[in-house]
Amino acid sequence: MILAGGKLAPHKALWPNFWGVLDNNNVTPIEISVVDKALGDMFDKLELTYNEGWPELTKEIIADALKALNKSAGGKAVYISAGKLYNLDDSGQLQEQEHHVAEPYLWPIAHNVRPAAQALGVRYCTDCHATDAPFFFGDVKIDSPIVDERQSFRTMTEFQDINPFYAWIFAFSFVFRPWMKLIVFCSCLILAGILLLYALKALGCIAKVLGGEK
Amino acid sequence: MYQKISITAFIVTFCVIGLSSIIWPCTGRLRNPLKTLVHLFTLPFLEQKLSLAGAFRKIVYLVALLCFVVLAITGFYPTLVLGEHISGYLIMIHATFAPIFAICMAILAVMWAGNCRLNNKDWPWFQRLVERITLMKSTEQPQNKTTCLRQKISFWLIIFLTLPLALSIVLSMLPYFGTGWQDMFLFIHRYLALIFALVVIIHTHLIVRAQMKQ
User: What ipTM is given for this predicted complex?
Assistant: First the structure.
């Protein structure tokens, strides 16, 4: 993620999962007691399997739950999960859409200090700037109980708000970076040699003049 | 701060160049402006009378000049116009042209150093001082070639400045220096780049004036 100063910083991410009420593009979470009252019986009857600590929900279950919540929530019930907003359209079909409320909560890892030897970039620039470096090209798994979304990922470039092609070509330019350093160092060596040579020549001239030679 | 200093420095330099051109105009410049324009336009082309080494030297000089223009635009445009650090595609272009420029500077240093060596003809006052100190009369007659002297000084300044300018940024790319050093190297690179750009502008102006006089 990009911080206010324009610097990239590693963040922790938490994907929101909750039932809510949609009101003028804002989503208000429904109180747990209301959800329990509306959906408790329904979920008690279901034999849900668990995966990675999550109950596995199908879209049919979510549609049924939203129908039940619509009656008791006092507004249009929605479900926020997997970075999306789920609600029922006018015909009662489940629809999903991107929504700012469904975006993951991110906060910078400010105090998680690593030893220098483990810090990113301590070895090479390619710790981050490689065409396969996780820092730019890693996939972030979207945490959700929805079965269809279990294999969903979001790329790191999406979080950094940068063009993937730009990130790739920038990383690719680092393939030639050692050559660039070598060329510049060699050029500097030649320049330093020339400067030293003519400085010594000038010194020789001064020594000759001061020594009384013509 | 850097933005203000740079803009002021560029304005002052261009004003000084403009004023010097008005106060000491090149001979024949006002008499035939069309011929002067054609002459200026054809300066980049290779002359038929040039030897192979001369042609190579001119090509290298023109490539270096082109690289300088690209580096100056990509380096100064974001800093001076946009008021932000160089980034994105501009930094990729900057890093691509930088090694080419370094090579050209090394070649130019090798090929031009002999011609740009300072001698007693360049500094008649220095020769008189040496004669007074050593009580010896020089057989060579001093000539007042201030333009030539300025060209030579600006050439040696360019060669001298290229060294820390290139090293400051390449060293910051090595994993041996921490963030504090990297910031310091960047600071040095920025200010040296400004001084370097001003010297190159003055040097180019002097070369063009010398060519026009011929």
Answer: 0.80
